[in-house]
Amino acid sequence: MKYISTRDYKRHSLVTSAEAIKKGIAPDGGLFMPCEIPTININDIEMLTALPYHERASFILSKFLDDYDAKGLLEDCKKAYSEDRFPGGAAPVVKLDDGRYTLELWHGPTCAFKDMALQIMPRLLSRALSMTGETKRAHILVATSGDTGKAALEGYKDVPGIDITVFYPVDGVSPMQKLQMTTQTGDNVNVCAVNGNFDDAQSGVKRIFADRDAIALANSKGSFFSSANSINWGRLAPQIVYYVSAYCDLVKRGDIRRGDYINFCVPTGNFGNILAGFIAKKMGLPVNRLICASNSNCVLTEFLRCGVYDRNREFFKTMSPSMDILISSNLERLLYIASGAEETRGYMEKLAKDGRYKVSEETFRTITKEFSGYFADESETSEYIAKTFKENDYLIDTHTAVAVCCLDKYRNETGDKTPAVVVSTASPYKFARDVAAALGSAPESDEPAALLSHLSSITGTSAPRPLSETVGRPVRFSRVVDPADMISAVFPD
């Protein structure tokens, strides 16, 4: 299977999956996409239902990464999704009540859904370097709104032939997210805060990728740049798996019959998570509706309602910081699927120049056949943390609360009672301060240890071991730079 840039309407950029994963981003600034979406059928779903998660992952990934050795891919999946890394299972489905479920994606080593991709992605990249005969070191650049950074650091730490630098907005992550990143172990890792928000950090990383001087500097040090953000296909492809897996688990438990349709409601800022669900649907997974859940930074909600994407708006710092994003990079892939490369290139040029674009009526109709957009403000997010705990005896984080609220809004507005899965993206203990406050017991201290203890005491639940073990580790990284100076943090010497 070949991959092409979302902006390459002349089809000059065809590469293998290994090359796409190694490069991360296309030379023209576009994102790599497979030239065709492989399919699965009802018999495949029946077969996958009987398999463990790592075998489901190997099967789905092999359809996109057909240049990878099948045996090696299965081996990598088995190691990435082992019981040691995901105690109790990689992506369990939990029933909230009749017709509503959560897909818990936060049982990995950093307690966030990014582990689902970033435990396998370093293995995919290592194989890609070998398959393409690469002799230089890969230097991974990551912009994070909180969870990707720690997951990438944990996945890539001490991986031979790879270095990683993570940038996060200085005041845009939770106390626990910051502690997780700044105490990261590993000889090949580097962490730096950026004065600004996530979009400033993300734009800065993209500038480095396009900066000839920065590329030359990396080359002089025997390195080349690549990405672990979801702009890299190696990050996005593994996320497709858990949508298929969730469906299989519902069938296996008898909650639905094979062939029944379900909905997914996904909290998303960068659009990668929900896009993976859309690709699963394009493959043949029986999905009825994809509900895009945003917080007060509701640029995606507006786009899905009127076809205008406009980042020229007030930016809000919210209790769901991983969605505090106004430039949703993976939306470009959806535009490519819906409208083709030439139209997509035009939209991206308008976004770069004016900060906004409006899609054609045909493209808008194509997208809205598949997606609905809703948002939850801060008060609604708090309300749904408390409501879900009281009514369902189920503790959720701030991002999952946004999605549960948006699912209720969608159901009330449309009357659609199709069984629905809320994609739960993080442990509530990563956002213990706001979760506790939503439950009516605001903590007195912002120290991570005190926050974990307080939330545990008021809910009768236990903090995940990876978070408890983080508390007390020495801080290794404290540098803060302006967006224009990010390259100095990549090569501090």
Number of strands: 15
The low-pLDDT segments are none
Q: Describe the biggest sheet?
A: 6 strands, mixed
According to CATH, what is the class of the domain at 88-112 and 234-331 and 357-433?
Alpha Beta
| CATH fold-level name of the domain at 88-112 and 234-331 and 357-433 | Rossmann fold
Shape label:
globular
* Strand coverage percent: 15-25%
What is the structural class? alpha/beta
Structural description of this entry:
There is one protein chain. This protein is an alpha/beta fold and 493 residues long. The protein has a domain at 88-112 and 234-331 and 357-433: 3-Layer(aba) Sandwich (Rossmann fold), CATH 3.40.50.1100. It is 46% helix and 15% strand. It is built from 22 helices and 15 strands. A six-stranded mixed sheet has the order 3-4-14-9-10-13, with helices on both faces. A five-stranded parallel sheet has the order 8-5-6-7-15, with helices on both faces. α7 (147-156) links the parallel β5 and β6. α17 crosses α19. It is globular. It starts with a strand and ends with a helix. The model has no long low-confidence stretch (mean pLDDT 96).
Topology of helices and strands:
Elements: E1 3-5, H1 17-23, E2 32-34, H2 42-49, H3 53-64, H4 70-80, E3 93-97, E4 100-104, H5 115-118, H6 121-131, E5 137-143, H7 147-156, E6 162-169, H8 175-182, E7 189-194, H9 198-210, H10 212-220, E8 223-227, H11 233-253, E9 262-267, H12 272-283, E10 287-294, H13 299-306, E11 308-310, H14 331-339, H15 341-354, E12 356-358, H16 361-368, E13 371-375, H17 378-392, H18 398-414, E14 420-424, H19 432-438, H20 448-459, H21 465-470, E15 480-481, H22 486-490
Parallel strand pairs: 4-14, 5-6, 5-8, 6-7, 7-15, 9-10, 9-14, 10-13
Antiparallel strand pairs: 1-2, 3-4, 11-12
Helix pairs in contact: 1-6, 2-11, 3-4, 3-11, 11-12, 14-15, 14-16, 17-18, 17-19, 19-20
